Amino acid sequence: MPITHCLCCPRRQCLMPGPSTSFSARCPRCQCSEPIPGTGFSSHRPGVRCPGANLRCPWGVPGAHCPGRCHASGVCVGVLVSLCLFRAHSVPGGRWFLSRGGVCVMRALQTLRPSRMPTGRAMAMAAATGSQQLSDLGELGRTGGSRGGPVLTLGTMNPAIRRLEYAVRGPIVTRALQLEQDLRQGVPKPFTEVIKANIGDAHAMGQKPITFLRQVTALCLCPELLASPNIPEDAKARARRLLEACGGHSAGAYSASPGIELVRGDVAKFIERRDGIPARAQDIFLSTGASDAIVSILKLLVAGEGQTRTGVLVPIPQYPLYSAAIAELSAVQLNYYLAEDNCWALDVAELRRAVTEGRRHCCPRVLCIINPGNPTGQVQSRQCIEDVIKFAYEEKLFLMADEVYQDNIYAEGSAFHSFKKVLFEMGPPYSEVVELASFHSVSKGFMGECGFRGGYVEVVNMDPEVHQQLSKLVSVRLCPPVPGQILLDAVVDPPQPGEPSYELFMAEKNEVLGNLAHKARLTEEIFNRTPGIRCNPVQGAMYSFPRIHLPPRACAAAQAQGQAPDMFFCIKLLEETGICVVPGSGFGQREGTFHFRMTILPPTEKLQVLLEKLSSFYTKFVKEFS
Q1: Do residues 221 and 483 make contact, with C-beta atoms less than 8 angstroms apart?
Q2: Which of 303, 304, 302 has the alpha carbon at shortest distance from 294?
Q3: What value, to the nearest 5°, has the Cα angle with vertex 27 and ends 23 and 28?
Q4: Tens of pLDDT along 551-604?
Q5: Rounded distance, CA 618 to CA 581, Å?
Q6: DSSP E strands: which ranges in 241-320?
Q7: Separation CA 336–CA 88 (nearest Å)
Q8: Model pTM?
Q9: Which of 119, 399, 539, 623, CA to CA, is 20 to 30 A from 525?
Q10: At what angle do helices 211-221 and 482-492 cross, to 10 degrees?
């Protein structure tokens, strides 16, 4: 009988006697399908690394790796027994060769807790059923009414959540918060403040709120202000109109689940003005920021198992919301790479490659586009959008267009074209059958009102029965935040020429967008002056995504610490300068390339200092590791 590695051991360090053909291709701890050397099984999702691989026995058993819980005796259950949904085997005498070197763990445990331990034969029978889960091992250590270990552990929690990662608020941001706390407590650091350039939070970076938006919102939240002579009449008129649409004339009441009907109608009118294409209020679903709507649409689209499981095409680099949502929903992520050498343009040939490869192991059904791009800052041309729509039509893909940065266009010659506008201008058959969901938010643009969590999705050509299911899905969360809906309405129904607030509103809006355009150019210029850093033009959005060369010694040092090379660089940058940026590995990048994402939102003076400080640190870093 050949000796093979137990699937539950991510490092293949435990031994289990038994035929290799009895192994399952799916890890019961995390439901990933890591390739199993020597078993003949192929990976369901190639390259997916078991997230349990770094778990060590909390009791410190040498060489032991467990799914996050231990037997009541204090010995790691990963050493005790493996329930990998294959038939377990015991050897004569009740000895179990489940640990390194063939140590008889079963006998050792019987010595420790003879009154609580089942026999080796009983354990083998339990494993042979194939229906028990790792959590059942907790039952083996209980007597009477004693509780044993916790119900919820890393081994028993939802494995999809363990797989989920969100780089924008990942470990480097946690460390930045710790450094801020150290500075407040007077701990000496080589910097006086932490600059969190990791996230597109405009107001946190010092951008002032747009007066009209805040006035309308404040009036709805505190109606007593309607009597104030200091607030313009057009803001008051909008607030009265919104309050009349709220339950009990109060912003504290629930709204309808898809949103306040008045606001949905105003969003539809906004889209009509923008595109010159009719829009229907019933196709507008208000949401808790665009993120909430994106996840809701993905929930509708993810279905099937194995070869029929939904595949979702996402751009690389991508905003980590997409990879996180795909992991949470146990869908299949299909990467298509943007062309860095062509200002991060989208190439339909690359889309075709991704779909063709994806069809070998899943069912590609969804194509996600971020325009303008995050983290890459590119603005897609109209021709590119037409090509994408034709491709979606040919391959029968549902289009998801993330357009939250549609106001943030800076490069000369660039312009925002909504997918809906292009779709309908292309005419039949595309305009009649291509299914589209497009998203917008109050968090970006010139507004920057991230904390209000207001946004919407418009669905086009959605099956009427699925449309009803979407209405049911959003009803589960009751309603989006009403203050966010109110602020969204002020965005889509701004002051008009001749109204009291118009001139101030336009002046504030143009100032914000003008400053961002200047900072986009400044970022590109300073980075490209630094040898080893290459930054594409920031055509739109709020970020730069420069490519950096990292010396082999730096890569080796990163590997020694179990870090990606660009994460190693970003942590060193944070510790020595207080500048917090996000490594490109958190967004995805071509193998062998390294990047980081940095927002362009800080005030111009601070941004210039930040850019020069970062460039100087990079030069020093390269010299140190060369």
Answers
A1: yes
A2: 302
A3: 105
A4: 999 999 999 988 899 999 999 999 999 999 999 988 889 999 999 999 999 999
A5: 13
A6: 284-287, 310-316
A7: 42
A8: 0.75
A9: 623
A10: 140
Q: What is the DSSP annotation of 299-358?
A: HHH----GGGSEEEEEEES--HHHHHHHHHTT-EEEEEE-BGGGTTB--HHHHHHHHHHH
Cα 369–Cα 370–Cα 371 angle in degrees, nearest 5: 110
Which segment of 126-130, 181-185, 232-236, 566-570 scores lowest on mean pLDDT?
A: 126-130
Tokens of 335: 């990467």
Residue in 499, 512, 451 with CA at minimum distance from that of residue 210:
512
Alpha-carbon gap, residue 563 to 177, rounded angstroms: 20
Question: In which element (H, E) is residue 472 found?
Answer: helix 464-475
Q: What's the farthest any 2 CA atoms get from each other in the chain?
A: 93
Say which DSSP state 543 is in.
E
Q: Which of 42-46, 233-237, 307-311 has the lowest mean pLDDT?
A: 42-46
The 10 Å Cβ neighbour count of residue 227 is: 8
- Angle formed by the axes of helices 604-624 and 502-528, nearest 10°: 20
**Confidence at 168, pLDDT banded by 50, 70, 90:** low
Question: Is the peptide bond prior to 317 cis by the omega test (within 30 degrees of 0)?
Answer: yes
Helix axes of 464-475 and 289-301: crossing angle, nearest 10 degrees: 130
**CA dist list (Å): 589 to 22, 339, 547, 562:** 37, 11, 10, 18
**Mean of the per-residue pLDDT values of the chain:** 80
Q: Which of 187, 301, 285, 254 is nearest to 478 (CA)?
A: 254
Q: Is the dihedral of CA 466, 467, 470, 475 positive or negative?
A: negative
Give 97 or 535, the one with higher predicted confidence.
535
Contact yes or no for 621/554 (Cβ under 8 A): yes
Residues 443, 446: Cα–Cα separation, whole Å = 9
The identity of residue 41, as a single letter, is F
Percent of the chain with pLDDT over 70: 76
How far apart CA 569 and CA 146 sit, in angstroms, is 49
Neighbours of 575 (CB within 10 A): 14
